[in-house]
Amino acid sequence: MEYEPVIGLEVHVQLLTRSKMFCSCRAEYQSADPNSLVCPVCLGMPGTLPVVNRRAVGHAIVTGLALDCDIATYTKFDRKNYLYPDLMKGYQISQYDAPVATGGRLEVDVGSGDRAYTRSVGVVRVHLEEDVAKLQHFRDTEDRSGQYSLVDVNRGGVPLMEIVSEPDLRSAEEARLYLTGLRSILRYLEVSTGNMEDGSFRCDANVSVRPRGSREYMSRVEVKNMNSFRAVHDALEYEIARQARVVGEGGTVVQETRGWVEERRATVSQRSKEYAHDYRYFPEPDIPPLVIEPAWVEELRRSLPELPEKRRGRFVKQYGLPAYDAALLTGARATADYFEECMSLGGSSAGPARAKTIANWVLVELAHLLGREGVGIQESRVTPAHMADLARLVESDAISGTLAKRVLEESFDTGELPSVVVRERGYLQISDSTAVESAVEEAVGAHPQAVADYVKGKETAARFIVGQVMKLTGGRAKPALVNDLVKRKLEMVRVANGS
Questions:
Q1: Domain residue limits at 372
Q2: Which of 123, 148, 253, 402 could form a disulfide with 104 if both were Cys (CB 3.0 to 4.6 A apart)?
Q3: DSSP 19
Q4: What string of H, E and C letters represents the secondary structure of 126-158?
Q5: Residue 62, Cβ density class (10 Å: 0-12 exposed, 13-18 middle, ≥19 buried)
Q6: Is 362 contained in some domain?
C-alpha cells in the first residue's frame, strides 16, 4: 500500500450511575416515557445549580487507572458553548484543559502466528461531561411532505465519559481491536454496559492518510454515525481507500465531517471543518474546581479487578488453555468468572484436560443456548455447579461426550442437574459389550454397501457404521467400545471375503 492510514478515536461512554451527572433525575432512560425523567436542572432552567455526581467521578478515575493514566489532583468543569436543538441550555458542561486523567496507554494484540504484533495506543485524556437530549424525527402521515422533530430530554444530563486516543492506529482492524479491548475493560470495571446498540458506547474516528514512512500529519476527516464494531471497521476501510484514491489522483483531502451510511456502504459529507469550532470554553461558574484526594485514588486503585490482559495470561499459565480460548473466555468478566468457578469445583481433576473441555462447553454449547434464549451467562439455569457435575459424568464414563451435549441442553431448559437428567432419562452409558455387539450386528446387517466399501479398502466406511451404532443406542454406547467392536466385526467380514 502506497499510503499509510493514521487513525485516532474518540469514544463516548455512558456511565452506570443511578442518577444523572448534575441532578438527581434517574439516569436509566431507555424504557421511560419521553420527557418523564427531567427536572429544572437538566431542562436548563434559569437559576438552577448543578451538583457533581461523585460516583461518575469515581468511574472516570478507575478508568484512568486501568488505562495507566495520570490522575489529576485538580480538575474542573467548563462550559462548551454551541447551539443545537438537543442542548436546551445552549452549552454543555464538559471538561477542557483540566480533565480527570491524562497520558495513558492501551496495548492491542493484532493478528496471530508469525504475523502477530502488539500496537501500543496512547490515551490522551479521560474526561467527564453530560450527555445531550435526543432528537426524534417524524413524518406527517397525512401530509407526506411534512416532517418535524421532537426533543426527548430524558437522556440529557446522563453522565458521559470521553476517552480520546492518540492517532496511533494504522488500520481499520487495529481500530476495531482497540474498541473491543477498551469495552472489555469498561465492563470489567462495571462502569458502563458498553452496548453500542443502545448508544452507551459511541465512537467517532479521525482519519487521514500519508505517504508510507512519512511522519507528517495530513488533513483529517472525522467519521460519525457508526453504531457497531463492524460499522467502525467498514467505515474506516472505505474512508482510507477514498482518501488514498483522492491523494493518488493528485487531489487534496478536504477537512470535514462525514457520516457512515450503512445502506450505501459509504461515508458521505455532512459539514465542512475547514476551521476549528470556537466553543468559547470558559470555567463553569456554578461548579467549583474539584480536588481529587490521593487517598481516594489509592482506595479506588486497590478496588480494581484483575483486568482482561492480565487474566488472559494467567488462564494460559494456570489452566494450560490455548491463548485463543483464554482470550475468548476473558473478553467478558462474567464469562471469565463463570469459567473459574467451574474449575474451582473440579477438585483434583481440575487440570488442562478439564479446562479445555469446560472452555469448549462454555464458548460453544452454552453460548449457543444463551444466544437462543437471548440471556446473559449470569441468568443461565446451567450454573457452574451444573458444569462441574457434567464434567464428572463424562470423566467417569457415565455418559459420552456426544451425549453430554444433549444432557447440557436439557439441563439448560429445565434447570436440573446433569446427573438428575441422566438418571431420570435413562442416559447412563452402555458399557456392556453384549448389548453393544447386538447393535453392531444390526448396523452391519442393515448397511451392506458400507460393509462392501470397507472390504474394498474404504476405511471411512467404518466411521459410518459407528455412527449407525450410536444412533441405535441413542448415543449411550461407550464410543471406545463401539469403535473396537465395529472394527473387529468388519475385519472378520474382510477375512471371510478373502480380502
A1: 306-425
A2: 123
A3: B
A4: EEEEECCCEEEEEECCCCCCCEEEEEEHHHCCC
A5: buried
A6: yes
DSSP-derived secondary structure letter, 254 = P
Give the largest Cα separation in the chain, rounded: 102
Q: Any residues with CB less than 8 A from the CB of 495 and at least 6 apart, and which?
A: none
For 259, the 3-state DSSP assignment is strand
Query: Into how many domains does the chain fold?
Result: 3
Do 129 and 110 lie in one domain? The reply is yes
Average pLDDT, the chain: 90
Domain CATH code at residue 446: 1.10.10.410
In a domain, 68, yes or no: yes
62 found inside a domain = yes
Same domain membership, residue 182 and residue 64: yes
Cα–Cα separations (whole angstroms), residue 346 to 387, 398, 485, 491: 10, 17, 33, 41
Considering the domain architecture, whether residues 263 and 344 belong to the same structural domain is answered as no
Q: What is the DSSP string of 280-334?
A: --EE-TTSPPEE--HHHHHHHHHTPPPPHHHHHHHHHHHH---HHHHHHHHTSHH
**Lookup: cell for 200:** 452507551
Mark whether 16 and 75 lie in a shared domain. yes
Q: How far apart are CA 32 and CA 36, in angstroms?
A: 7
User: Is residue 252 domain-resident?
Assistant: no
pLDDT of residue 74: 96
Quick check: 77 and 95 in contact, CB under 8 A?
yes
The amino acid at residue 266 is A
Domain end (from 365, 398, 425): 425
Residues 483 and 412 in one domain: no
What global pTM score does this model have?
A: 0.84
The H or E element containing residue 448 is helix 448-455
Tell me the per-residue pLDDT of 385-424, one tens digit each, with 9 for 90 and over. 999 999 888 888 788 777 889 899 999 999 999 999 988 8
Q: 490 near 454, Cβ under 8 Å? A: yes
Instruction: For residue 471, give the amino acid letter.
Output: K
Q: What is the strand order of the sheet 221-226 is part of?
A: 70-71, 101-110, 117-130, 159-165, 3-14, 201-211, 221-226, 256-261, 266-272
- Number of alpha carbons in the 13 Å side-chain half-sphere of residue 180: 21
